[in-house]
């Protein structure tokens, strides 16, 4: 009947608009039952359960054998780790697999059989589950005693396939690889040529005392190649050239040329190429997201224009405002956008909306998220007005910064004076007294700002929330200190009387005061720009961080399988196997500790190529492949991608800063899509209609 058809059209429009909001594809089933299942699947509860399941299955690596549940990783001091009995973690893993089976089944049903065969991610999802379940059965059949578990390496795939932005980022990286490969090939040629030169230059001579360079670094081709590869990361600089330099100063020219060509020219050229190419491919990906949003909105218009109550018009389709209001009441969307669309609808002079007007209404989704601060209170008292003016002025904030700086300087002076003193020789009277004074000032400053700005306006600023929280914590710690140790007085000693000694409590207060000094950042425009750029990266580039987790996890599990129990400290074999590769946690830390330069530049440290690789029996040569692959992916590729995104975000913010004066009461919150909004092209009506007519489950009336 007509009523049932209208309800279906309304539900279709609701789902299409929600697809547009989330940049989802609309190529799914659109019958009543499928729409209910679709909204249930993408509800917060279901997505939360799926995210929790992914987190649990990834966290199993820290619990299952080999377990990371020890306080210390030093084998000389730690107690034997608790290992779960066979079947415990496997039962949890099976529950996770069942959730994934339901997930892939619902996804496959909703997109239909025809679209399923076009979706490579879903087919890979099913293949991963089949392999994981097979490996799970094999594990139980061996009573959980096998060392190699393939399903552990496959676990990051569940995180990867669950994020559309991670898939787009991965696709952009994959498209950038050919351009990266050309520079990496050039690096390989550079490395090979200089390796040959080094073997000729530092060849073995008759005088064994003069062959230290040959013995240590260039004894054979693999050692020479390894030495120069590590030099490319600057990890063994200048150690690698010291023996030759001691023999003849002219040998330094070889190492200088290698470093200048490799590090300063080729590596920076790689960064430039990655920035240019990755930005282009990411822009294409964001362009496709915009097309999905426009397509979802247009699909909602088309189904609403098919309502029986809408007057027929052979020339142009229209949607009634009443129908749109009915849809908006049920759509899950940001309240700010919904209210803005409602306000625009009230201003419409007609009861009908054309396709252009309908699309324009939902352009509110593309705008910056604006947070406007509440107004300050209005006082009638002349005295209160003067107080509000004085303590709400920016100069009062500058005074607080000066006081915070004085607090930091006083703490530094006391720490320098007491650096060499024994705890029993310290007199914390001066430090305790000045801390008490400054904390009272911070408390007074917070109260005066609340009076001047109002409580709601005060809390609307992140810097004020930061200040207020630390002030309250400092006040509580100070009161606890006075309650346990009394008020500061000459001879105030750090005796241990409670949970923390006096010195520990004072030190904790000082650390929080130092941390509080970060309040000056919003007052320094350029520093604030840099900090907001970093915060935006943290908030918006979750997909980038997710792929980084995938890479770390996969290499960590591979490292456990390759090197577990194989690495023994040189000269101290009696201690037993080192714990660097024996558990998930220590393996991650081993990989993470190779981040030893600025901007998280991951390098191969000399220790990995000497202590570790020389002590790995039988697989020493092949272990180098693992570390070189880790360096290439984490340092050469991944860090350069991070620099590219950092540059893009910073340049975008700098351009906005130059073209628009910031408003004090407005905060603009950007997303990855909005970063490229100014250069994106709007799809034409013909492109949208052509794509809609290709929808596998939707039959349009025109």
TrEMBL record:
Keywords: Calcium, Calcium channel, Calcium transport, Endosome, Glycoprotein, Ion channel, Ion transport, Lysosome, Membrane, Repeat, Transmembrane, Transmembrane helix, Transport, Voltage-gated channel
Transmembrane segments: 45-63, 92-110, 122-142, 180-202, 253-275, 395-417, 429-448, 469-488, 508-531, 543-563, 625-647
Main localization (coarse): membrane
Membrane topology annotation: Multi-pass membrane protein
Domain Ion transport residues, every copy: 53-278, 400-650
Places the protein is found: Late endosome membrane; Lysosome membrane
InterPro entries per the UniProt record, alphabetical: Ion_trans_dom (IPR005821), TPC2 (IPR028798), Volt_channel_dom_sf (IPR027359)
Signal peptide: none
A single GO cellular-component term on record: lysosomal membrane
GO annotation terms (biological process): calcium-mediated signaling; endocytosis involved in viral entry into host cell
Catalysed conversion reaction: Ca(2+)(in) = Ca(2+)(out); Na(+)(in) = Na(+)(out)
Gene Ontology MF: a single term: ligand-gated sodium channel activity
Top-rank taxon, per record: Eukaryota
Protein family according to the UniProt entry: Belongs to the calcium channel alpha-1 subunit (TC 1.A.1.11) family. Two pore calcium channel subfamily.
Stated name of the protein: Two pore channel protein 2
The organism of origin for this protein: Leptosomus discolor
Lineage: Eukaryota, Metazoa, Chordata, Craniata, Vertebrata
């Amino acid at each position: 009947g007509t009523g049932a058809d209208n309800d279906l059209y309304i539900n279709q429009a609701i789902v299409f608009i929600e697809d547009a909001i989330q940049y989802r594809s609309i190529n799914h089933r659109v019958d009543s039952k499928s729409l209910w299942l679709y909204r249930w699947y993408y509800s917060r509860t279901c997505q939360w359960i799926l995210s929790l399941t992914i987190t649990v299955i990834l966290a199993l690596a820290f619990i299952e054998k080999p377990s990371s549940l020890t306080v210390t990783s030093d084998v000389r001091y730690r107690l034997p780790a608790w290992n779960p009995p066979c079947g415990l973690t496997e039962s949890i893993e099976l529950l996770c697999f069942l959730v994934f089976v339901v997930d892939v089944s619902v996804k496959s049903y909703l997109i239909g059989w025809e679209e399923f065969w076009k979706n490579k991610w879903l087919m890979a999802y099913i293949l991963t589950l089949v392999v994981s379940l097979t490996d799970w059965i094999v594990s139980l059949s061996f009573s959980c005693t096998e060392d190699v578990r393939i399903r552990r390496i496959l676990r990051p795939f569940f995180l990867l396939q669950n994020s559309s932005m991670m898939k787009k980022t991965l696709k952009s990286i994959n498209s950038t690889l050919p351009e990266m490969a050309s520079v990496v090939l050039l690096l390989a040629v550079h490395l090979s040529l200089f390796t040959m030169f080094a073997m000729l230059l530092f060849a073995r001579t008759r005088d064994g005392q003069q062959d230290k360079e040959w013995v240590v670094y260039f004894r054979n081709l693999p050692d020479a190649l390894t030495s120069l590869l590590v030099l490319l990361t600057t990890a063994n600089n200048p150690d690698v050239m010291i023996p030759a330099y001691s023999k003849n100063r002219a040998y330094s020219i070889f190492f200088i040329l290698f470093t200048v060509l490799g590090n300063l020219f080729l590596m920076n050229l790689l960064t430039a190429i990655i920035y240019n190419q990755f930005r282009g491919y990411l822009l294409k990906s964001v362009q496709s997201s915009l097309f999905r949003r426009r397509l979802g909105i247009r699909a909602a218009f088309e189904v609403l224009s098919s309502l029986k109550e809408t007057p027929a018009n052979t020339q142009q389709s229209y949607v009634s405002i009443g129908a749109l209001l009915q849809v908006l009441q049920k759509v899950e969307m940001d309240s700010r956008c919904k209210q803005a669309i409602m306000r625009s609808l009230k201003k419409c002079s007609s009861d009908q909306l054309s396709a252009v007007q309908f699309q324009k209404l939902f352009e509110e989704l593309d705008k910056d998220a604006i947070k406007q601060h509440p107004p300050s209170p209005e006082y009638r008292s002349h005295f209160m007005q003067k107080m509000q003016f004085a303590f709400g002025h920016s100069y009062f904030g500058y005074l607080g910064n000066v006081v915070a700086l004085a607090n930091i300087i006083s703490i530094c002076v006391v720490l320098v004076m007491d650096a060499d003193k024994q705890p029993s020789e310290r007199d914390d009277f001066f430090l305790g007294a000045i801390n008490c004074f400054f904390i009272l000032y911070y408390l007074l400053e917070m109260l005066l700002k609340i009076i001047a700005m109002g409580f709601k306006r005060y809390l609307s600023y992140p810097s004020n929330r930061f200040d207020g929280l630390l002030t309250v914590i400092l006040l509580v710690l100070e009161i606890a200190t006075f309650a346990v140790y009394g008020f500061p007085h000459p001879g105030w000693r750090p005796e241990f009387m409670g949970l923390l000694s006096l010195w520990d409590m004072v030190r904790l207060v000082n650390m929080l005061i130092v941390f509080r000094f970060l309040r000056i950042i919003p007052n320094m425009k350029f520093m604030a720009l840099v900090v907001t750029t970093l915060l935006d990266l943290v908030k918006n580039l979750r997909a980038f961080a997710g792929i980084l987790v995938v890479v770390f996890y996969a290499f960590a599990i591979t490292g456990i399988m390759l090197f577990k129990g194989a690495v023994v400290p040189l000269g101290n074999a009696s201690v037993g196997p080192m714990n660097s590769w024996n558990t998930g946690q220590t393996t991650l830390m081993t990989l993470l500790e190779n981040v030893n330069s600025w901007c998280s530049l991951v390098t191969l440290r000399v220790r990995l190529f000497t202590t570790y690789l020389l002590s790995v029996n039988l697989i020493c040569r092949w272990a180098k492949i693992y570390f070189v692959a880790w360096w290439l992916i984490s340092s050469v590729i991944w860090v350069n991608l991070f620099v590219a995104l950092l540059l893009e975000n910073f340049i975008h913010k700098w351009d906005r800063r130059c073209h628009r004066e910031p408003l004090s009461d407005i905060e603009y919150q950007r997303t990855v899509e909005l970063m490229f909004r100014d250069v994106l092209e709007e799809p034409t009506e013909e492109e949208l209609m052509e794509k809609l007519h290709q929808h596998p489950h939707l039959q349009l009336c025109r």
